[in-house]
Amino acid sequence: TAIEETLVLVKPDGVARNLTGEILRRIEAKGYSLVDLKLVQADRDLLAKHYAEHEGKPFYEPLVEFMESGPVVAMRIAGNRVIEGFRSLAGATDPTTAAPGTIRGDFGRDWGLKVQQNLVHGSDSVESAERELALWFA
Ligand code: DAT
Ligand code: MG
């Protein structure tokens, strides 16, 4: 087995649309465990560190502005292969093409805004998860 922990964020659009419970319900229904959870108003410094890999890309500024536009729910989630497993629950980055049955596929769509408002973030590797959990649950 490979028991892992991952960082899940319910982004400002997910919190504003009252989807936090539905997202957590899916995580728990899959059998993953909630280890820690908090509502956070992220500041620029935290978001710059969180999204350092995307600095300089055309969507970076609108992404950071979107992420600081309202509170996010940060969750520490544990389970066997949960990093890959949550990415699978979340679905593809673009909510228009994310498969039905996934969080982004079922609830997300292209709102015609500058940045994809795709409801959730999930760490993409063991290294990212360790780095991101240290940032959000310092
Ligand atoms: P993911 O969130 O699926 O890991 P990512 O790490 O590549 O995707 O990008 C981080 C976020 O940035 C993503 O959730 C939405 C936004 N984003 C990514 N690619 C984008 C693009 N081409 N246009 C607009 N926003 C984008
Ligand atoms: Mg990513």
From TrEMBL:
Chief subcellular site?
cytoplasm
Q: Which residues form a coiled coil?
A: none
What's its EC? 2.7.4.6
Tell me which InterPro entries the record gives: NDK-like_dom (IPR034907), NDK-like_dom_sf (IPR036850), Nucleoside_diP_kinase (IPR001564), Nucleoside_diP_kinase_AS (IPR023005)
Q: Which reaction does it catalyse?
A: a 2'-deoxyribonucleoside 5'-diphosphate + ATP = a 2'-deoxyribonucleoside 5'-triphosphate + ADP; a ribonucleoside 5'-diphosphate + ATP = a ribonucleoside 5'-triphosphate + ADP
In the record, biological process GO terms are:
CTP biosynthetic process; GTP biosynthetic process; UTP biosynthetic process
A Pfam match = NDK
Mention one GO molecular function.
Answer: metal ion binding
Entry's transmembrane regions: none
User: Catalytic residues per the record?
Assistant: 121
Q: Which cofactor does it need?
A: Mg(2+)
**What keyword terms does UniProt attach to this protein?**
ATP-binding, Cytoplasm, Kinase, Magnesium, Metal-binding, Nucleotide metabolism, Nucleotide-binding, Phosphoprotein, Transferase
Query: Taking every annotated instance into account, which residue ranges of this chain make up the domain Nucleoside diphosphate kinase-like?
Result: 3-138
* Database matches in CDD domains: NDPk_I
Give residues annotated as binding ATP. 11, 59, 87, 93, 104, 118
Q: Which cellular compartments is it found in?
A: Cytoplasm
Gene Ontology CC:
cytoplasm
UniProt function note: Major role in the synthesis of nucleoside triphosphates other than ATP. The ATP gamma phosphate is transferred to the NDP beta phosphate via a ping-pong mechanism, using a phosphorylated active-site intermediate.
Protein family membership: Belongs to the NDK family.
Q: How does it assemble?
A: Homotetramer.
The protein, known as: Nucleoside diphosphate kinase
Q: Which organism is it from?
A: Agromyces protaetiae
